[in-house]
Amino acid sequence: MLSRQNPEENTFARVQGLVRRVVGLVAASTVALGGSAGGGVGAAPGVIPTSLTAWTADVNGIVAPIGNAPAGGDLHAIKLQMPVIAIAGRPGTTGYWMASLDGGVFAFGGAPFLGSLGARPLNQPVVNIAPTPTGRGYWLVASDGGVFSFGDARFFGSLGSTPLNRPIVAMSSTATGHGYWLLASDGGVFAFGDARFFGSLGGERIAAPIATFAVSPRGRGYWLVDRTGRVRAFGDATPWGDANVGAALAVGIAPTKDANGYWIASSDGDVRAFGDAGPGASQAHLAGSTVGIATPWASSSGLALPLLEFLRTLARARSRQQIRTWVGPDEVALTFDDGPSQYTLGVLAALERLGVQATFFAVGTEVVSHPELVRAEADAGMAVGDHTWDHADLTHLSPAEITAELQRGSDAIAAATRRSPLCFRPPYGDTSPTIVSQAARLGLTQILWNVDPSDYLRPGTSTIVSRVLATANGRGLVVAIHDGGGDRSQTVAALPAIVFGLRARGYTFVRLC
Length: 513
Fold this sequence. Notes:
The chain contains 9 helices and 26 strands. The chain is of the alpha+beta class. It has 2 domains: 12-316, Neuraminidase, CATH 2.120.10.30; 323-509, TIM Barrel, CATH 3.20.20.
């Protein structure tokens, strides 16, 4: 999955502006189309009752407690690779979960962590999390209607293989936990298990997409709310009014315990009250766009559509970048590992004289010691990839330790060059599916090699040259040599003969990543 706005920047902190712009553009188009003008029944915009126990969360994973809700913790100290998409309260408690677009799950305040999809390749991003009534399980749902069960959450079916007119944006459990509903952005409702179908907007023309929904406490109806704040009620759910969210987007609806009112949260952090959900203290706004609202009895999140647009924007940016991760016939990529070092400038000088661009896989500790050398690589038009923080064998590490090794290495490169790497090379070429998946969460593609002249053993300049040229039979070549980790004078001396020899055999030099 993609994990950044600019393909050269791999931390979520650098894409906050894009998220805000996407939300703003969607909201502006909503206003232009003409949103609901309705106001709350007995409520003023932007105010909440002090008796409400609830939490709102933003795309950064920052949580704002409401009323008498305790602060259970948030993700302010975590570097997220993908935005938070939803918040859900643990039923009957003051704990809650948050979920991110890549299927990561984060538990707070006594809510148990029961598993996630953070390291699993997904066909489509996760758009919502729904707890079981017991609070001992939860479901994740993807935009294609795929459902994933954790803890005591049972699987009752999905839409993963069903063609959909519009993406799934929300999910909610039945009161028994033996079924659930899925909601599409066109207002289509899909029932599974003991969930009853009470109607939908799937066949109607609607002015604005449906953002989210909430099920009535008795499980005999539900409210759908579109991104302008307009509410549609089905079954025993009573409409208590529409929210005019202005330039913001409606992102959550939570009913009162007796279903005689509800609160509607908007992306700007406001929470509006309707019915017997009387007014109270003003809600403090979060720095990022709010994704939803959670209470100990109901949760609803609805920022899926603009965040899906965020992902499409990343995909377009990445495709424009035309990232190369391998070579074709009669192409060769020279790659240099373990630097930078005192030999790096000699390598760069030789490559410049020869008119060759190459790819350097730098070790984080060496980058910190010699940032000027990595900047010289980038300024010369070379690609700089991640070779971990301290050249650790990743196959001996836990998933968290793998992520830390790659993240620290990437951060060091980004600090030196102002560009985050797109690719990584595992030390010693030792790899595994876990390593690849953890790297993918950081936006890093693995690059291995198929030519190894063992220059690190210093076999002699002529031997290094002959070993490389012996492989030149027209196939694509990725040559692994070194500009660090020891005496590399033989490697520097071998470069002209390698380049001339490969060119004479019809090879073109390419840069990866």
